[in-house]
Amino acid sequence: MDVIYLDHNATTPVDPEVRDRMLPFLGEHFGNPSSKGHALGWAAGEAVAVAREELAELIGAQPENITFTSGATESLNTVIKGVADPGSGQRKHIVTTGAEHSAVVESCRALEERGVLVTFLPVSEDGLVSLREVEDAIQEETVLIALMRANNEIGCVQPIEKIAALARSRGIRFLTDTTQAVGKIPVSAEGFDFLTCSAHKVYGPKGVGALYVRPGLRLPPLLHGGSQEEGLRSGTQNVPGIVGLGAAASVARRRLAEDAERLSGLRDRLERDLLSEIDGLKVNAAGVDRLPQTSSLTFPGIKAANLLAELRGLALSAGSACSSGTGKPSRVLKAIGLSDDEALATLRISLGRFTTKDEIETARSMILEAYSKVRADKPSPAPA
Question: How far is 289 from 287, CA to CA, in rounded Å?
Answer without folding.
Answer: 7
